[in-house]
Structure formats: structure tokens, C-alpha cells
Amino acid sequence: MENTIALRVNGRAVSVTAMADTPLLYILRNDLALNGPKYGCGLGECGACTVILDGVAARSCVIPLAGAEGREVVTLEGLGSSSAPHPVQQAFIEEQAAQCGYCMNGMIMTAKALLDRNPDPTMDEVRRALSGNLCRCGTHVEILRAVMRAARLLSSPGAQHDDQPSDRHHARPDDRIAVPADADLCGADGGERRPADR
Amino acid sequence: MRQAARNGFPEAGFAPGPLAAPSRRGFLKAIGAGAGALVIGAHLPMPALAAEAAAKTVGPADPRPHAFIIIAPDNTVTVLAKHLDKGQGIVTGIATIAAEELDADWSQVRGAFAPADAKLYANHFFGIQGTGGSTAIANSWDELRMAGAAARAMLVAAAAARWTVPAGEVTVSKGVVRHAASNRSLTFGELAEEAAKLPVPQQVKLKDPKDYVLIGKPDLHRLDHVSKTNGTAIFAMDIRRPDQVTAVLARSPRFGGTVKSVDDAAARKVPGVIEVVSLPVGVAVIARNTWAAMKGREALTVTWDDVNSEMRGTDAMLADYRKLADQPGAAAAGKGDADKAFAEAAARGGHVVEGDFVFPYLAHAPMEPLNAVVALNPEGGCTIWAGSQFQGVEQMVAAHILGCKPEQVKIETQWAGGSFGRRATTNADYIAEAVMVAKAYPKAPVHLVWTREDDIKGGRYRPLFLHRIKAAVDDKGALVAWKQRIVGQSFMAGTPFEAAMVKNGVDATMVEGASDMAYAVPNLAVDAHTVASPVTTLWWRSVGHTHTAYSKEVMIDRLAKAAGKDPVAFRLEMLKDHPRLAGVLKLAAEKAGWGQPMPQGKGRGVAVHESFNSYVAHVADVTVDAKGQVKVDRVVVAIDCGQVINPDIVKSQMEGGTGWGIGHALRGEITMTDGMVDQANFDSFLPMRMSDMPVVEVHIMPSSERPTGAGEPGVPTAAPAVANAIFSVTGQPQQTLPFSRGGIVS
Q1: What's the ipTM?
Q2: pLDDT of B268-323, one tens digit each?
Q3: What class has domain A2-79+163-171?
Q4: Pairing of strands B301-305, B258-263
Q5: Do B687 and A18 touch (CB under 8 A)?
Q6: Which segments of B575-731 are extended strands (E)?
Q7: Choosing among B96, B227, B653, B660, which should be mutated to test the A contact, i.e. which has the most A CBs within 10 A?
Q8: B24-226 and B314-362+460-742 share one CATH topology?
Q9: Subunit contact A102:B235, Cβ cutoff 8 A
Q10: Which segments carry the region annotation Disordered (chain A) (predicted)?
């Protein structure tokens, strides 16, 4: 029943043994201990599980593991870190575009894929690109603004970001059982004032 | 009531009361503070909350060393939130209050969730630890200001002692303690150990609001934003304990059903399935991973006993509600003689307006489905990792299941992916399930996960309601009578909250916003029928105001039209005794450009309401196209919530409340056919999409009143403002929700 399947996740080759029909989301979360992609509906309806698969935003909750064989998966962890956020993440931070934050993965990954193919989208194009991503808290206004800001950040000189996933963010085997020691210290990522450019 | 006993949940409930405090050392270990940390708390007895008002100097009456603030030698200031942060930003809000009085630098401030402790961390409004009703800021306002001021005084005393200078010569600013005359300074971290040895001051002086540098200021960065953009913010869904297993539960497809028989042979053959156990609440499939658990559940054959089930569909239920509405209910409010006033109005050139309003069942559907990890502790009791909203209830329910003491139930509160009321239940429903599974399978930590389908079909809905309203204006266009009947379920009846919340047969949460109507009316009669059904119901963001504000505000526009009056002017005439309501109404109207003519096909509507001690007005602009389809273009919101702690967060909450109110009014409904829920996931329970969200402008009324809340009050007026905007274009009052039922929204 179980197969061993090889794929690349955040730039690293991984091999997973599981039932081939297991949705990629559960492999990423259960087997590779990645917390970026979230379970929200299991039906591809809410977008919380979005990853970038061979450069395209994809719903990992409806892609079977077998369908990801040999392919390149980038998760939120592959974009940037607290100390070195990707410009899309930076824009979401600056616009304070999270309330509960559970949809953030999908919003950021979908925005990243949109901006990769359309670096200068209109607000309507952003709305359309994100229309399949649900936010229940009602942070839509800030999210839209964050994507527009991300487009500006990405296009401004000197704001080039290395899009290649770095090894630092890879799941280590130990991660699957480890709860970060500072998991409940929510301010550990710093409480600096927002840039005064708003 | 049958619903309390539904599905075998423990009925013992709880009696709010004190529990033993954890040892200080154990607590410090739990929150990760090492030796040499200054740990400060302040205990404020409940009566002082009301009495304090404008007092500038107040004393921590009971300065036990329970922690609200931890100043560590590494110069971090960690502020503990006893409340759940489910997106409303309370961790940041509470930290702001403490940091202000402490004169900390915002960059050194951290937030953390306090452990579950009924004695130390009770919500002063509830008597148990819990979050809800937009009470968190009001709750923490005195407590955290006092804790911050006390910690600041101790740092000052420690510095004065070290420098042998008078404390009065020591100043604090942005996290630095200074003695200007000798040009010496120290950080909080450098003073933490010495300060911790000093007594907690009995009296503290609070800042004058004019000196605030953090409270009320924009652009103060939320403490959770960086971690929420890169996957390092930990939700219960992200918890992984050693050897953890995943469980899903097969629950009765009808409310009130119980397990009759189970054939689990096929489920046990699914690779990865470890165990199948029958519980009073359903059949649990325990597996090595999520997918195996889900596949295992699909392979189960369960026969359900429906002898106590709700077998009606929602249409049949509503027909029963309409019959009930013909009969008088239990009185909730009454003055004058409404029937006499109707007769007089009709006879003397006035107008009588009548209408039935229908509000569907609604699911909360937070983005993070319900889930909790439970591990049995070797010494007894258990540890729960969850987006825990009613820690006090959960401790007592888990203790009841496990036969241990509530204080043996440890709760590690995690960031919650939304709640909207769903995570706060009077019987700790999903956490109770997880504890039951852990008890049945004690070998490893159990992660109980609800799928989205479990969530949408799982009940705890905003109840289905019918309102019947009759109201009249006299020949001068003055409101003279209002009669309202509300039919629906009570989610308080049969719970430990019943004694406090149900009076004379009326659940206060069913009629709030109607029985206490702010508009001046000489003849008022509000009554209610409480209906019993096994369908489980619950508070849902803004509770009773979700429906009472809607029917009231839509009727007011019908009455204004009958009276030939402008909707804003008509309301202001009736709000002379409610200056804060009138204030937000005028502010929203002015900012929206009320009174300007609208182009063909466009309409503007207004609504104003008080809820949770905050005052909110919405003005909505809509377009109704040639096919009658409605689009919400712009919404202007004004709120008065007293002293604002963090204006950016208040703004977010108003946007969120607006989206919540409008989103569900567009297409949100849970319906049932023969007792079975028709919706299953986000393809059938239809939330607001990015394309539905209007432009939202938020205006905050400057105020020095005590802070109230912002999480709930943004909801009630959003949908009726839109309905009134549609009414201004089409002349059709929107009295059945959602709008999609009337074909005006696709």
C-alpha cells in the first residue's frame, strides 16, 4: 500500500514513504514537520494549504503525494525567515496584514506566485488572484494593500531577494517531534515599530 | 433542555470558584523565566473595577507574586495574556497597557499566554478564566496598568538603592532607568534581579493619559506579525509531541443521535490505523497520521440511534416558529400600551409597519478547524495544547472526565486560527472529546482534529431566529410604539450559565439589543419564545446583536420612510438621551457624505447600535445593477470604544466585523433537510470572498472614557446598513437572510 516517493522541498531532496494517495499537505506537515502550509478545508476551497509547485501556486490538500513525485515544492518556510523575510513577507508585516494569521500562508504564497508572473498587478488583478483564498477574520483590506506593497518592494532597486530556498529552513528529522522552545513567546520575532512610511 | 446532554457530554459542568495556585517556581519554569527575573503581578478585586473610575492612584490590594510581567536579565519584558488571542490582537493590546506604565521600549516587549489558573487569571466579568464578549481590554485595563506601574516603581527603587540617590531623582524612559544629575543609566535587564528582591509597592501612581507614548498611538507594531508570516507562530494544529497520534471522530449525522452499533473491521485494516474506540460522543479512529485517521473513519460502518434526534428540516422548524410567533411569549421588556398606541396611530394619520424577519443558522467556521492535543500526565491529570478560550471550563470538564482535580489539568494556550465564539463552549466540547480519546488511548499524546466537514456539520451554530415586529409612527412622524417577538433557541438554558443569563424564561442573549432598545419610544413590548431542539447552538461574533440590531435598524428605515424623514435625522431625534450613539452616527454620516444625492442604481444606508458597551455606526454604499444584483462598494464605520489602546487593531476589528456582518448577510446559511445539514465545506457554506470585500473606512471617536471592546461591536450594524442601502434603491426591505435567498446576490 505504501510507496517511497522522491521530491524536492525547499531546495532539498526528500524521500517519503506513505500511501501514494496521501495529499501532499499531510506529508509536508506530518512527515516533514513544516508548519507553513495549513489544513483549512481539504477540498482546495480555502487556500490555506497553498504551496508553490514547480513555480505555480497549488493547493497541497488536493494534490496526492504521487502527483508531486520528482517535483519542486516551495513552502512558506522556503521564502524567508524572521530575520530575513522575503519581500512579500516583509510587505505583509509592514501592512500588519494578519489577524489570526491562519490564512497568511495561502495569501503570501499565492501573492508570491502572482508577482512572479505579473510584477505590477492592478488592485483588481490582486483581488482576482486571491479570490480563492479565504480569510474569516476580515483582514482583506490589509492583505490587498500588502500585495500592492510587495509589488513595490520587489520592483524597487536594491530590494532584490534571493528566491532560492536556503538550507536553514529545512525540516530536520528532529523537528517532527520538537515544539520550539520559545513557541509561546510570541514577541520573540521582535516588536519594532513599523517603518514610518505609511 | 435536551441540548445540554447532547451526545453524551459530561453534564456535571462546573461551579465557578477558586482553585489552588501553582507553585511560583513551577509557574516560572512553565513560562520559561530563569533565575534573576523580576516577576510582577497585581490582583485587583472585582468591586474595585467599578469604583476605580478616575482615580489616579490605586493599590494592588493583594500583591501576590503571580505574574503578569516578567523582566528578564536579557532585558526582555514579557507580558502574559490571560486571554486567548484568536486574531483580535489582545496579546499586543495587553502588552501595550503594561509597557506604557512601565515605560518600556516597545522593541523589548514580548507577549506570552498565561497558563490556566482559575485563581490568578480569572476574567473579572466571568469569574472563571476565559475570553469573550469583548471584555479582554476592559478586564486588563486596571490590572495591567497597575502591574506595569508597580514593576516600574521596583526598578526605580532598585536603581536608587544601587546609586544611593533619592528615588524621586530617578527617571524611566524607553526601557532605560536614569539618574540625570550623575549621568548614570541602567537597563531593565541590569536591574531585574535586584528589583525582584524588593517588596511590591502597596500604592502605585498611574500615568496621566496626556503623557501616553504607546497607548492610543498608531503604527505600534503587533507582536505576532513576523511569526505569522513565516510559519513560526504555533497553532494547536502545529503541535507535535513525541509519539503523538492523530484521532478523528465519527459523530452522529443528526443532532441528538447516538451510536447504536459499529463495524470497524474495514477501518482497522487501513494502513496506519492503530485503534478504534467507541465513546459517548462518537467513534474515534486513532492513527499514526492525519490521512490514515481520515481514511479509517471513511471505512467505518456506524448505525446511529435517532430516537432523540432532530428529524425536522429548517423549513419545518421555521414553520413551527411562525406558529409560536402567533402566541405571546415570555416578557423581556414592557412599558406603556403598544396595542393602544397602534390603534391610535392608525386612527389619527400615523403609520403602522409590520414585518417578519428570518435569520438562518450560521457556522463560525474559523480558518483553523477545531483541534487539541492531549497528553495524560504521569502524575495524574493531563496537559492540553489548544487555542483555549475558556480555560476555566476546560479544566473542570477535563478533570471530570479523568477523575482528577482541575488544577491537575494543565493548559498550554496556543495562537488560535479564529474563533468568533466557537472555541468557547459551556461544556468544552471539542476539548472534552480529545480528553475522552486520550483517556481511552493513554499510550501516547492524542491530537484530535476536526475536519472542515465536521466543523460545518457540527452544530454550535448561531441559532435560527424569527422576529415579528410591529411598530408605529404618529402623524408627526414620531415613533410611538414598538412590539417585537423573538423565537429561537437558547444556548444558555441547561448550562452552568443559566442562572445568571436566563431570567423569567428569557435568555438575555436572545433579546439583547431589542429589549434594551436605545431609541426613545413611549410604548414598548418585547417578548420571546425559547424553542428546544437537539441542534446545538452557541454565541457567534456579537451574539444576540447579530439579529436584534438587524431587525431593529431595518424596521427603523421602513418607519423613517413611512414618516417621510431622513434616516439619520429620524434616528437622531430618538437618540437625545444617548449622546455616544448619536456621536458615532453623526461621525459616520459626516465622513460618508450623508445627504449627497446618489447616482441612479446606487444607494446609501445607515445603521447604529450599542453592543458590549461600545457604540458603532455603519454607512454603506451599494450598487444595484440592471439585473437587480447587489454589490457593496464602500462602508464607513465609526466606533466609540472609550480610550483606545491600539488604534490600528481597533481599525482591524472594525474591518473584520464589517466583513463578518456583510459576508454572512450575502450568502451565509446553514440549512437542514430531515435533520441532516445540507452544507459540508466552503463550497456550500459560502464565506465572504476577496471580491466581496468593500472599501472600508474606519473612524475612531476620541474618548477618555474607560476602554471597552472592539471584537464584537463591529458586526451588528454592518449588514443592516447594507440592507438599508438596498432599500433606498429598490424600496424592498431585506427581511430574510441571507440576501442570496432573494436572488439579489449570486
Answers
A1: 0.91
A2: 999 999 999 999 999 999 999 999 999 999 999 999 999 999 999 999 999 999 99
A3: alpha beta
A4: antiparallel
A5: no
A6: 602-611, 614-624, 630-640, 672-673, 676-677, 695-700
A7: B227
A8: yes
A9: yes
A10: 156-198
